[in-house]
Design goal:
By secondary structure, the chain is of the alpha/beta class. It is built from ten helices and eight strands. Helix 4 runs parallel beside helix 6. Keywords: ATP-binding, Cytoplasm, Kinase, Nucleotide-binding, Transferase.
Length: 226
């Protein structure tokens, strides 16, 4: 077993806008670990399709775009073909398309190994939809982060407006409900809590409270194995 295989992973899964990315970054920073925003890879694939005029229904072409993705993550920024696309991949049109392409089996297979490469010592905090069920099934701590759709829509609306995008709360709620249904019902790697995951409802929790909850669970786990 390589040192990368032994590196601990905290997997944080959950529906869109549940706060996974923010929590993952904060937990990783507190522990001094690396972070994987798996959703960014699917958003990048979606953006590549939009920029190249690839028909989302052409699964072979979409999968090829995923395999040839020229992307890198640097200091909280996301680059594709050398261009900073950090804000572009957060647009709702990209997020909705990402949910569609994520249902394509060939796309998920193309991105699977790329995600696992992020597992390096001293540890990794990975967020997504199937981190604990498919990508890192042996993660010692698996979190399923949820929040009611109204709270998630309000968060996303605020986030989009802060980034200069127009946003309509009612439309966001409708889009999220549709995306949730699509993510949960897809045949390949559906959005579901791992059998050994711990569910945290962040609807009424602040970012700090949610981060403290995850760190507390990790601390308890480490202590129990000491």
């Amino acid at each position: 077993m390589s040192s990368a295989d032994k590196a601990p992973v905290i997997a944080i899964d959950g529906p869109t806008a549940s706060g996974k990315g923010t929590i993952a970054h904060c937990v990783a920073q507190a522990l001094g670990w690396a972070v994987l925003d798996s959703g960014a890879l699917y958003r990048l694939t979606a953006l590549a399709c939009l920029d190249s005029g690839i028909d989302p229904a052409d699964e072979a072409a979409v999968a090829n775009a995923a395999r040839e993705l020229d992307a890198r993550f640097e200091g909280g920024l996301v680059f594709m073909h050398g261009q900073d696309v950090t804000d572009r991949i957060r647009a709702e049109v990209v997020g909705n398309l990402a949910s569609q392409v994520a249902a394509v089996n060939e796309v998920r297979q193309a991105l699977l190994d790329r995600q696992r490469v992020f597992r390096q010592a001293p540890g990794l905090v990975a967020d997504g939809r199937d981190m604990g069920t498919v990508v890192f099934p042996d993660a010692p701590l698996k979190i399923f982060l949820v929040a009611d759709v109204a709270a998630r829509a309000q968060r996303r609306c605020k986030q989009l407006k802060e980034k200069g995008f127009s946003a309509n709360l009612a439309n966001l709620m409708q889009d999220m409900e549709a995306r949730d249904a699509r993510d949960r019902s897809r045949t390949n790697a559906p959005l579901v809590a791992a059998a050994d995951a711990i569910t945290i409802d962040s609807s009424n929790l602040s970012i700090d409270e949610t981060v403290d909850a995850v760190l507390g669970l990790w601390s308890k786990l480490v202590s129990s194995k000491a």
